């Protein structure tokens, strides 16, 4: 453990991660413009996000191997180089196929950023200061993706979509230059061998699940490509897990789940990811589709929540060091449950600033939960298991976010269809359907809006129940101290002190 953390080096890693995370969400609002320019279908243009996500799903589980095998300097330089090449290629991409390829090259670099940065901080900071360090990491992790849609909305309204990549590239190259000059090696390395069959199984497993659940909203759950890829993914993942448990040196070590607080942290993180993604998807849907607010103004509505979440992360980190995860998680989840419930009671004309306040307070609650719980779980692992712990957390967040989004969107759609039919039947029974064509079109539009509102409200109600389940699980959190002796961590014995919060 370093006496004095290498702040300059960590700042370079932070900036690189910020640029990569920001880029992840920049493109979403630009998809319709890109679709029109290249004359592709909505299902095709989605590959710009689906392809990016798939590469993440393949690379992140393998990151435990990369972090152990290669030095942090070499890994970061490689990741940033790949990200820069992908960004440059996207700027000049003459065809849609080449743009998708560019995004996948970007993803191969950015997928390694989060696991690498988390491992560097776990090594660089002593246990009593990890909360503050991870809080600063949360500043990057939560703020960058949340600022993306607002920034993207403004740029797409005033400039070409290629500007999104043109802005990112200079910062990526600058980070690469500084990293080449200043970056040093601090993470321990071991001469691990890559099990190619494990890599293939994890790629098919996580990739299949991510693709299947992400495609469900567009193609429907009864589409063979959806249930087929989910089934193949699930079988491959089960085979992968069994193989890892039987291997002496696994690619991704599932034995870390013998540490109870890490296991609990994983379960809570999965549940929270579903609840968090629901707000990020359903709120813009309500604002734009029901209220008819522009994409840029929708981004502005969500911006204070993003800023609050970012600013709170370092504060939450310090509070974690002082009080532990339990009190923070319970407080944060009580706020999250209450605000999510109020979001399930939206009306056709709920006020813009009321929505902004509700969403901001919800994000404030969530800022107190995710990072403390993850850090508390990682604190129980011996040093040699850190790469596996960070890889596992990041993979589960990706997969649970995709699965949660797909399920909640399906719930919203089914409820919307049922509500629409019910409203139409009521109107037919009461004889309130207008005969005039213009009036009929307006009437049908009103029914669609009411049905969508009912679907969104019902989905938020389900998200409230999910957040309540996470709140119940936090009651079992205990504050952990790290293993006293790293050399005995290879034994089945868990040398971890566990004390009540």
TrEMBL record:
<feature type="domain" description="Major facilitator superfamily (MFS) profile">
    <location>
        <begin position="9"/>
        <end position="481"/>
    </location>
</feature>
<feature type="transmembrane region" description="Helical">
    <location>
        <begin position="225"/>
        <end position="242"/>
    </location>
</feature>
<dbReference type="InterPro" id="IPR020846">
    <property type="entry name" value="MFS_dom"/>
</dbReference>
<feature type="transmembrane region" description="Helical">
    <location>
        <begin position="262"/>
        <end position="287"/>
    </location>
</feature>
<feature type="transmembrane region" description="Helical">
    <location>
        <begin position="293"/>
        <end position="315"/>
    </location>
</feature>
<dbReference type="InterPro" id="IPR036259">
    <property type="entry name" value="MFS_trans_sf"/>
</dbReference>
<feature type="transmembrane region" description="Helical">
    <location>
        <begin position="352"/>
        <end position="374"/>
    </location>
</feature>
<keyword id="KW-1003">Cell membrane</keyword>
<dbReference type="InterPro" id="IPR011701">
    <property type="entry name" value="MFS"/>
</dbReference>
<dbReference type="Pfam" id="PF07690">
    <property type="entry name" value="MFS_1"/>
</dbReference>
<keyword id="KW-1133">Transmembrane helix</keyword>
<feature type="transmembrane region" description="Helical">
    <location>
        <begin position="327"/>
        <end position="346"/>
    </location>
</feature>
<keyword id="KW-0472">Membrane</keyword>
<comment type="similarity">
    <text>Belongs to the major facilitator superfamily. EmrB family.</text>
</comment>
<feature type="transmembrane region" description="Helical">
    <location>
        <begin position="105"/>
        <end position="125"/>
    </location>
</feature>
<feature type="transmembrane region" description="Helical">
    <location>
        <begin position="12"/>
        <end position="35"/>
    </location>
</feature>
<dbReference type="InterPro" id="IPR004638">
    <property type="entry name" value="EmrB-like"/>
</dbReference>
<feature type="transmembrane region" description="Helical">
    <location>
        <begin position="161"/>
        <end position="181"/>
    </location>
</feature>
<keyword id="KW-0812">Transmembrane</keyword>
<keyword id="KW-0813">Transport</keyword>
<feature type="transmembrane region" description="Helical">
    <location>
        <begin position="193"/>
        <end position="213"/>
    </location>
</feature>
<feature type="transmembrane region" description="Helical">
    <location>
        <begin position="458"/>
        <end position="477"/>
    </location>
</feature>
<feature type="transmembrane region" description="Helical">
    <location>
        <begin position="75"/>
        <end position="99"/>
    </location>
</feature>
<feature type="transmembrane region" description="Helical">
    <location>
        <begin position="47"/>
        <end position="68"/>
    </location>
</feature>
<dbReference type="GO" id="GO:0022857">
    <property type="term" value="F:transmembrane transporter activity"/>
</dbReference>
<feature type="transmembrane region" description="Helical">
    <location>
        <begin position="137"/>
        <end position="155"/>
    </location>
</feature>
<protein>
    <submittedName>
        <fullName>DHA2 family efflux MFS transporter permease subunit</fullName>
    </submittedName>
</protein>
<dbReference type="GO" id="GO:0005886">
    <property type="term" value="C:plasma membrane"/>
</dbReference>
């Amino acid at each position: 453990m370093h006496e004095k953390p290498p702040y300059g080096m960590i700042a370079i890693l932070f900036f690189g991660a910020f640029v990569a995370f920001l880029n992840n969400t920049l493109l979403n609002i630009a998809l319709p413009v890109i679709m029109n320019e290249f004359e592709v279908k909505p299902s095709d243009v989605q590959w710009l996000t689906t392809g990016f996500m798939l590469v993440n799903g393949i690379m992140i589980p393998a990151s435990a191997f990369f972090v152990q095998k290669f030095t942090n300097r070499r890994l970061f330089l490689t990741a940033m180089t790949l990200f820069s090449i992908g960004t440059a290629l996207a700027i000049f991409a003459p065809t849609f196929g080449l743009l998708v390829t560019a995004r996948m090259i970007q993803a191969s670099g950015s997928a390694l950023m989060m696991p690498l940065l988390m491992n560097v901080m776990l090594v660089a900071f002593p246990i009593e200061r990890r909360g503050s360090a991870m809080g600063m990491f949360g500043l990057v992790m939560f703020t960058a993706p949340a600022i993306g849609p607002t920034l993207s909305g403004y740029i797409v309204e005033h400039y070409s979509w290629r500007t999104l990549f043109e802005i990112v590239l200079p910062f990526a190259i600058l980070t690469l230059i500084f990293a080449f000059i200043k970056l040093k090696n601090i993470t321990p390395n071991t001469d691990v061998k890559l099990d190619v069959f494990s890599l293939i199984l994890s790629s098919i497993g996580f990739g299949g699940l991510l693709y299947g659940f992400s495609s469900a909203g567009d193609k429907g759950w009864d589409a063979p490509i959806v249930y087929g890829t989910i089934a193949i993914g699930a079988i491959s993942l089960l085979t992968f897990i069994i193989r890892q448990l039987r291997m002496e040196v696994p690619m991704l070590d599932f034995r870390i789940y013998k540490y109870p607080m890490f296991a609990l942290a994983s379960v809570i993180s999965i549940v929270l990811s579903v609840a968090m993604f629901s707000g990020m998807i359903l709120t813009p849907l309500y604002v734009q589709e029901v209220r008819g607010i522009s994409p840029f103004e929708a981004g502005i509505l969500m911006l204070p929540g993003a800023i609050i979440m970012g600013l709170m992360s370092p504060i939450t980190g310090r509070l974690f060091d002082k009080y532990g995860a339990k009190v923070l998680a319970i407080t944060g989840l009580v706020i999250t449950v209450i605000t999510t419930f109020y979001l399930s009671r939206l009306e056709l004309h709920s006020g813009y600033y009321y929505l902004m306040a509700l969403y901001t307070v919800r994000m404030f609650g969530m800022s107190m939960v995710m990072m403390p719980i993850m850090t508390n779980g990682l604190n129980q692992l011996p040093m040699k298991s850190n790469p596996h712990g960070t890889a596992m957390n990041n993979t589960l967040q990706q997969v649970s976010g995709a699965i949660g989004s797909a399920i909640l969107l399906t719930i919203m759609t089914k409820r919307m269809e049922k509500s629409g039919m019910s409203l139409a039947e009521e109107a037919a029974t009461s004889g309130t359907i207008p005969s005039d064509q213009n009036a009929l079109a307006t009437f049908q539009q009103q029914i669609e809006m009411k049905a969508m509102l009912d679907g969104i409200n019902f989905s938020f109600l389900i998200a409230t129940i999910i957040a309540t389940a996470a709140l119940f699980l936090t009651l079992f959190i205990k504050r952990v101290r790290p293993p006293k002796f790293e050399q005995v961590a290879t034994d089945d014995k868990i040398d971890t002190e566990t004390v009540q919060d």
